[in-house]
Amino acid sequence: MSTDHEPGVDVTVENGTLRVTINRPDRMNAVKAETLDAVADAFDKYTGDETIRVAIVGGAGGRAFCSGADIVGRDLSAPPSTDTLDAANRVATTVRDFPRPVIAAVNGAAAGVGVSLALACDLTVASESSYFLLAFTRIGLMPDGGATALVAASVGRARAMRMALLAERLPAAEALAAGLIADVYADDDFDARVDELAARLAGGPVDAYAATKHAINATTLTELDGALGREFDGQMQLLAGPDFREGVRAFEQKRKADFRNR
After folding, report:
1. CA–CA separation, 108 vs 66, rounded Å?
2. Domains parsed from the chain with CATH numbers
3. Element (H or E) spanning 138, and its range?
4. How does pLDDT run across 15-36, given as a tens digit for each residue?
């Protein structure tokens, strides 16, 4: 087994399985630009490695897969940086283009860009106590990381609008029923079920999987690249706006944002 430790990300390779684990449990695996870049770096590093047969993306600690971008301590007086958006877009395209099946093992909260990361993977499975939350509008932002295409491609326009505009939690069972994810496993045997799924894929015809993945993505994610550009432009404007400043202040003060009197 080989192991790499990048900023907030653990990368291991064993028996043909690449595991990329966001390891910031004290922040519920909230990500910074360097965290997302480390995830993308791992996939780039092993893209041409013929010994890799399947990949798993997960979150450490059991409370969250990824709770979104880490906004605590953000300097609201500084001009918005493109770093996190660039990294989020890179992750979405890198995971999409990886030539092996990628499993998102969602054990806990998947929020914000965590939803984007989970849905960029090929098979998204969740523990029964997990949930999905496009929380962006709660802090005056719009979905990014490809979420506007990834969610709509899975559940359709009406459900995507509800998730994005109302920022409501979608429990794992409802996410499965809506077609957002591939399966739900019991909390107690979640890790074992993920390992079983990975072993099944690792023992399969990887070239056929690669061709299948490419063909389905080409058909269903035709708008992903365009969405990334639209999200980038819209988000950069929102990051410089008053709603975001009020949203961050409210988040840090643990209160509901007041967008009418910002």
Report:
1. 8
2. 2-187+214-252 (3.90.226.10)
3. none
4. 999 999 999 999 999 999 999 9
